[in-house]
């Protein structure tokens, strides 16, 4: 055993020893290979690991299909929207999900900790948004089912580590996204993109304090494309509230409340609709018979007089209270 192995090696080695399934063993060996430094002293070890890996992989092939892993990638939607975090190993995707929700995904100081998607709910104002933590992607290895999941999501957060070559990390992830979907995952800027585009926000994590500002600025300058970006820290909480706000804005949603004639508005849980939705869309959401019966509506909100009468085509604003007249 070479003497100069990093401490992370022993952690993933322990995971390998404890792994029960072939898939877990494969993941552990991949993680070991990722942390073993490349030099003469580790040649034998790396060759041995690769041998074990190919043996396990060929055995794993024979036992397929398991179906279980597919189920791991089919995650039921909950809440107002579904947002998937994606990025290279060890950048802090799981730490961010832990900081933004009440869930506790595994966070560890070695790469390839997360082995399957992990959903959790992020509370924001009076709604909740589903975040999905995912296994890391690398140029050599991106899971097709993960890409499918990104395609279905309402928004993608590309997470990079501001302290370790974030522009290369972003380049790698962007290449994977674009290569797979032929440009269908586009940067979303101010709502003037086509229907095929999807909001993407680049999150420069580990921007723990102001001393990281320079790294972030260099990153921003090095990146050629005009990605929307935000510097945050899962560790210190820096800009996490701003991140929630940016996610909500990128999703372009409106929250509306309903009230019955002569009654107080129901503020318990808003209806959440896409920006651009109308009173008629709200009616359809409440009951499929309602649009046919709808005569008009009264609205309380920012851009109207209290109780203003509007037609079915009225564009809903975030925070509106609506009284449908059937
Ligand atoms: N300084 C600092 N460290 C962080 C921050 N976020 C995460 N870390 C550390 O970075 C390491 C990796 O964090 P994870 O959340 O496991 O990273 P990940 O992207 O989920 O990693 P994989 O599951 O392997 O893809 C851990 O040691 C975290 O404590 C941060 O904002 N600042
Ligand atoms: Mg993780």
Give the SSE layout.
Elements: H1 7-18, H2 22-35, H3 43-63, H4 68-72, E1 82-86, H5 93-100, E2 118-124, E3 127-133, H6 144-152, E4 155-161, H7 166-181, E5 200-205, H8 213-222, E6 229-231, H9 240-251, E7 253-258, E8 266-274, H10 279-286, H11 290-293, E9 296-300, E10 308-310, E11 321-325
Parallel strand pairs: 1-3, 1-4, 4-5, 5-6, 7-11
Antiparallel strand pairs: 2-3, 7-8, 9-10, 9-11
Magnesium ion is lined by residues 93-94, 113-114, 133.
Summarize the structure.
The chain has 326 residues and is an alpha/beta fold.
Can you describe this structure?
By secondary structure, this protein is α/β, with parallel strands linked by helices. The chain has three domains: 57 residues, no CATH class; 184 residues, Rossmann fold (3-Layer(aba) Sandwich), CATH 3.40.50; 72 residues, Ubiquitin-like (UB roll). 37% of the residues lie in helices and 19% in strands. It has eleven helices and eleven strands. The strands form two sheets. It has a six-stranded mixed sheet with strand order 2-3-1-4-5-6, with helices on both faces. The protein has a five-stranded mixed sheet with strand order 8-7-11-9-10. Strand 2 and strand 3 form a beta hairpin. Helix 1 packs antiparallel against helix 2. About 2% of the residues have low confidence. The structure holds guanosine-5'-triphosphate (GTP) and magnesium ion (MG). Magnesium ion binds next to helix 5.
Relative helix content = 25-40%
Radius of gyration: 24 Å
CATH superfamily of the largest domain: P-loop containing nucleotide triphosphate hydrolases
> What is the N-to-C succession of helices and strands?
HHHHEHEEHEHEHEHEEHHEEE
Number of strands: 11
**Structural class of the secondary structure composition?**
alpha/beta
């Amino acid at each position: 055993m070479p003497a100069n192995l990093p401490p992370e090696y022993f952690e993933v080695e322990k995971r390998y020893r404890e792994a029960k399934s072939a898939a877990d063993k494969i993941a552990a060996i991949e993680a070991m290979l990722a942390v073993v430094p490349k030099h003469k002293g580790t040649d034998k070890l790396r060759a041995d690991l690769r041998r074990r890996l190919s043996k396990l992989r060929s055995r794993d092939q024979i036992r397929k299909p398991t179906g279980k892993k597919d189920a791991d990638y089919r995650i039921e939607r909950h809440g107002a929207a579904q947002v998937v975090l994606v990025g290279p190993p060890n950048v802090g995707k799981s730490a961010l999900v832990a900081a933004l929700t009440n869930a506790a995904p595994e966070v560890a100081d070695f790469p390839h900790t997360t082995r399957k998607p992990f959903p959790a709910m992020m509370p924001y104002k009076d709604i909740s948004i589903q975040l999905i933590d995912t296994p890391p992607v690398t140029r050599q290895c991106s899971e097709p089912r993960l890409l499918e999941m990104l395609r279905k999501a309402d928004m993608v957060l590309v997470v990079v580590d501001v302290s370790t070559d974030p522009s290369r990390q972003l380049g790698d992830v962007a290449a994977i996204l674009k290569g797979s979907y032929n440009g269908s995952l586009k940067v979303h800027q101010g709502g003037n993109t086509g229907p095929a585009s999807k909001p993407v926000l680049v999150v420069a994590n580990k921007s723990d304090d102001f001393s990281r500002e320079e790294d972030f600025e260099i990153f921003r300058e090095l990146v050629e494309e005009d990605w929307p970006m935000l510097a945050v820290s899962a560790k210190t909480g820096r800009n996490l509230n701003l991140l929630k706000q940016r996610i909500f804005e990128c999703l372009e949603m409106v929250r509306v409340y309903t009230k019955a004639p002569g009654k107080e508005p129901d503020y318990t849980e808003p209806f959440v609709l896409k920006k651009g939705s109308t009173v008629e869309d709200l009616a359809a959401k409440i009951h499929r018979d309602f649009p046919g019966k709808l005569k008009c509506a009264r609205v309380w909100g920012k851009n109207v007089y209290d109780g203003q009468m509007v037609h079915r085509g009225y564009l809903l604003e975030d925070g509106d209270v609506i009284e449908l007249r059937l």
